[in-house]
Design goal:
three-stranded antiparallel sheet; 11 strands; Cell_wall_metabolism_enzyme; hydrolase activity; M23ase_b-sheet_dom; M23 family metallopeptidase; signal
């Protein structure tokens, strides 16, 4: 009877390791194989494709040497309809209070804390339509696109009627003496759209002061 050779333990262990690697492949080796297969060297004549961003994102063309396009441009903040007539942004000492009738009581603008001699700036580009005295108070009025008119008082003018001004241009300087001003000087700033007075703060992106008025009699 022929003698059967006993199996070599080292060979048996190697066979078992090969079987295990086939049943449970090493993820590290799989990843390396995938990378090598997708490289240009693995497929001569073909370049590896670069990841792209959908055109709907509005991405700009790819920059040289970068596999990714630049990110979409940041959103821009829209400019308020009007800018502040004082810089820095002043404290509001008295808020807008719309009159109930065209000639009724109210506060047709806002009062802004200032100092005597502080520069007054045009809230938007426009044309100066008045620079003079109204009831003894020095006033400047500027017409803007969209039917807006801004007024500034009391102001010592550095412009004259008919002058074209740009947004932020110096119109004059604040004078002391505005009625009911609790600080050294106040600038009264008013805005009209046609014949209607509107709250200037609503056009700067700020929130004005709101008051609830009692309901009138009747339905």
């Amino acid at each position: 009877m022929a003698e059967v050779a006993s199996p070599d333990l080292a060979s048996t262990a190697a066979l078992a390791a090969d079987a295990t690697s086939l049943a449970f492949p090493d993820p590290v080796l799989l990843a390396a194989a995938a990378n090598s297969a997708s490289s240009p060297a693995a497929y001569p004549g073909f370049a590896a494709a670069k990841p792209t961003v959908p055109e709907a994102w509005g991405a700009e063309p790819e920059s040289p040497g970068s596999p990714f396009p630049p990110p979409p441009a940041a959103w821009t903040v829209p400019q308020p309809r009007l800018s502040w007539p004082l810089s820095p942004v002043p404290v509001v000492t008295k808020y807008f209070d719309a009159p109930e009738t065209p000639y009724g009581a109210g506060h047709r603008g806002v009062d802004l804390a200032a100092v005597p001699g502080q520069e007054v700036l045009a809230a938007d580009a426009g044309v100066v339509v008045f620079a003079g005295l109204v009831a003894g108070r020095p006033v400047i009025s500027v017409d803007h696109d969209g039917g807006l008119r801004t007024t500034y008082e009391p102001v010592s003018p550095e412009v004259a009627a008919g002058d074209q001004v740009f947004r932020g241009q110096v119109l004059g300087t604040v004078l002391a003496g505005h009625p009911s001003c609790a600080v050294a000087a106040c600038l009264h700033w008013g805005v009209r759209r046609g014949e209607e007075y509107v709250d200037p703060l609503s056009l700067t992106g700020e929130v004005g002061e709101y008051r609830l008025k009692p309901w009138g009699a009747g339905p």
